[in-house]
Design a protein that fits this description.
Blueprint: E1 4-8, H1 12-24, E2 28-32, H2 35-44, E3 49-53, H3 61-69, E4 76-80, H4 83-92, E5 98-101, H5 106-125, E6 132-134, E7 140-143, E8 148-151, E9 154-156, H6 160-171, H7 179-186, H8 196-209, E10 219-222, E11 226-229
Parallel strand pairs: 1-2, 1-3, 3-4, 4-5
Antiparallel strand pairs: 6-7, 7-8, 8-9, 10-11
Helix pairs in contact: 1-5, 2-3, 6-8
The chain binds calcium ion.
Length: 234
């Protein structure tokens, strides 16, 4: 069954190009240029994934996502014209699954669509129980009680900060966290700590994860935005 992608974008040329790229890759792509019409379509015939532009006539992307998230976990990739805007969007905790900044390459968008869809499948079945949690589809196990992280049964020697960082990122695979959000997760009182502190903990964490993920980078950097944990099929 072909996956249905709804593109909500008022720049119709852009939407059309994207739809063609997605169709070439076997998706069924529909385009809508107005926010209110999009909301109606989402209620009547929800797609498998929503590509949602931020600035739209009728109803903007933020309002659409807020409304949608009241009832739906549908994968959403938010599209904005400005990198700086993404930080603000992250702060609103709208629950988008990924963010793409214009101008983008349609190829990149297709790749991101595939990644988000791949992630969405096991994630819906994964339990959100506290205690022992494993990132969907990966070999990583995180035990909150003992503060131990294991990859394929092998302990990672992590400092408490590195553990907390991994727990935060891997707890929501694919979610993008800004430095400020990671800082909040790591330090009770972050007044004294520079956001750059995150970088050194991340560097060490990546070094320790590297032997377990020789061909992959489990923690993805999104330039100007933040970091996300990728889940891999085991
Ligand atoms: Ca727009």
């Amino acid at each position: 069954m072909s996956k249905r992608i709804l593109i909500v974008e008022d720049e119709t040329d852009l939407a059309q190009i994207l739809a063609e790229y997605l169709q070439r890759d076997g998706f069924v792509a529909t385009t809508i240029a107005d926010g209110l019409l999009a909301m109606a379509e989402l209620r009547q015939a929800p797609p498998d994934l929503l590509l949602l532009d931020l600035m739209l006539p009728g109803m903007d992307g933020i309002a659409i996502l807020r409304e949608l998230r009241k009832t739906s976990e549908l994968p959403v990739i938010m599209v904005t014209a400005r990198t700086e805007e993404i930080d603000r969007l992250l702060g609103l905790e709208l629950g988008a699954d990924d963010y793409i900044c214009k101008p983008y390459s349609p190829r990149e968008v297709v790749a991101r669509v595939k990644t988000v869809l791949r992630r969405a499948q096991p994630a819906s079945a994964a339990s959100a129980a506290s205690g022992s949690a494993s990132a969907s589809g990966s070999l990583l196990e995180i035990d909150a009680d003992t503060m131990q992280a294991r990859v394929a049964g092998k302990n990672l020697e992590l400092t408490p900060k590195e553990f907390r960082l991994l727990q935060t990122l891997a707890g929501k695979p694919g979610r993008v966290f800004s430095r400020a959000q990671l800082l909040d997760a790591l330090y009770a009182d972050n007044l004294e700590v520079s956001e750059r502190a995150i970088d050194s903990h991340l560097k060490n964490l990546r070094r320790k994860l590297a032997p377990a993920f020789p061909d992959e980078e489990p923690i993805r950097s999104i330039y100007g935005v933040g970091f996300a944990f990728e889940s891999f099929a085991s």
